[in-house]
From TrEMBL, chain B:
Its main location: mitochondrion. NCBIfam families: CoxB (TIGR02866). This is Cytochrome c oxidase subunit 2. It holds the Pfam family COX2_TM.
Length: 117, 227
């Protein structure tokens, strides 16, 4: 997007060669939060238990769980946003189409207010 | 159309293709998680001394049964949702027949008037400057924007396949059989595709070009063609 970051349009960074973290929505945040979670959980486990091997296992598990957890949360919100956008677009189109006609929902509301008064 | 050395999908021009791209991103994220786990386990195995003292491994058996089942469910649910979405009964505004020949397409618009034309690739020697090599055709398929279009695909001689990636459409053209698909172009534009079933020497030279235009433009085009 214009004015955001220094990456040239069309360039992408692919994690492990296949996941385009720059252009896929929620991917970059998922990986970053996953890395942070991995660091926190692994380091925390090591500080608590001083077991290196098990702490590495916890770190990797934390990375996967945090990354996937944020991914599902972000994609769910994104799906809701897209549905709202579609409803808004449909509503705007219908408003332009039916304005002034008997199908205009605002006309029904005005009519009911007149009836109440 | 695809850029040179493009590996990913083209930008979506229909709601189904948007959903397919979303699902593809979801599947890749799950694949990234699995690859990370596998890489870590691989590293562990390569740095550990092997031991044959394990006689009972109930916990690991449980883990590598339940985890793959959860992964499959995570992938199957959105996949089935899109599959059923693609097969939804909708009332098309326009029906178009696409007939594959060696090596061109014939299109028929027979809803209102009998409109039939052939679509041949423009040879490179005759291509105007700035046009796309091996993709342009002499007669494009014009469809109205924001309208559900039903395409009935068949072939006259051998197997072909009518495919337009940015609309999320790929349907086999089989002689003696009518296959039906539909699409909804969300924005005006020109969308390119190529025959996707090997059909002879010029299989790579029978492209498909769908031009989505606003309804008044579509009506003007169809009336000019039929007159």
């Amino acid at each position: 997007m214009a004015g955001e970051g220094d990456s040239e349009p069309g360039k992408s960074f692919k994690l492990l060669g296949f996941l385009d973290v720059q252009n896929v929505p929620c991917a970059r945040e998922s990986v970053l939060y996953g890395s942070l979670g991995s660091l926190v959980m692994g380091l925390g486990h090591f500080l608590a238990t001083s077991r290196v091997r098990r702490s590495c296992d916890v770190a990797v598990g934390g990375f996967i769980c945090t990354m996937l957890g944020y991914w599902f949360y972000c994609r769910y919100n994104l799906a809701q946003q897209r549905i709202r956008q579609r409803m808004l677009k449909e509503g705007m189109k219908n408003r332009v189409l039916f304005e002034g006609s008997y199908l205009d929902p605002e006309k029904e509301q005005t009519g009911s207010e007149r009836g109440d008064s | 159309m695809a850029n040179h050395s493009q590996l990913g999908f083209q930008d979506a021009s229909s709601p189904i293709m948007e959903e397919l791209i979303q699902f593809h991103d979801h599947a890749l994220m799950v694949a990234l998680a699995i690859c990370s786990l596998v890489l870590y386990l691989l590293t562990l195995m390569l740095t550990e001394k092997l031991s044959s003292s394990t006689v009972d491994a109930q916990e690991i058996e449980l883990v590598w049964t339940i985890l793959p089942a959860m992964v499959l469910i995570t992938l199957a649910l959105p996949s089935l949702r899109i599959l059923y979405m693609m097969d939804e009964i909708n009332e098309p505004d326009l029906t178009l027949k696409a007939i594959g020949h060696q090596w061109y397409w014939t299109y028929e618009y027979t809803d209102f008037k009998d409109l039939t034309f052939d679509s041949y690739m423009i040879p490179t020697a005759d291509l105007p400057l700035g046009h796309f090599r091996l993709l342009e055709v002499d007669h494009r398929v014009i469809v109205p924007t924001s309208s559900t279009v039903r395409v009935i695909v068949t072939a006259d001689d051998v197997l072909h396949s009518w495919a337009v990636p940015s609309l999320g459409v790929k349907t086999d053209a089989i002689p003696g059989r009518l296959n039906q698909t539909s699409f909804f172009a969300t924005r005006p534009g020109v969308y390119y595709g190529q025959c996707s079933e090997i059909c002879g020497a010029n299989h790579s030279f029978m492209p498909i070009v769908v031009e989505s235009a606003p309804l008044p433009n579509f009506e003007h085009w169809s009336s000019s063609l039929s007159s």
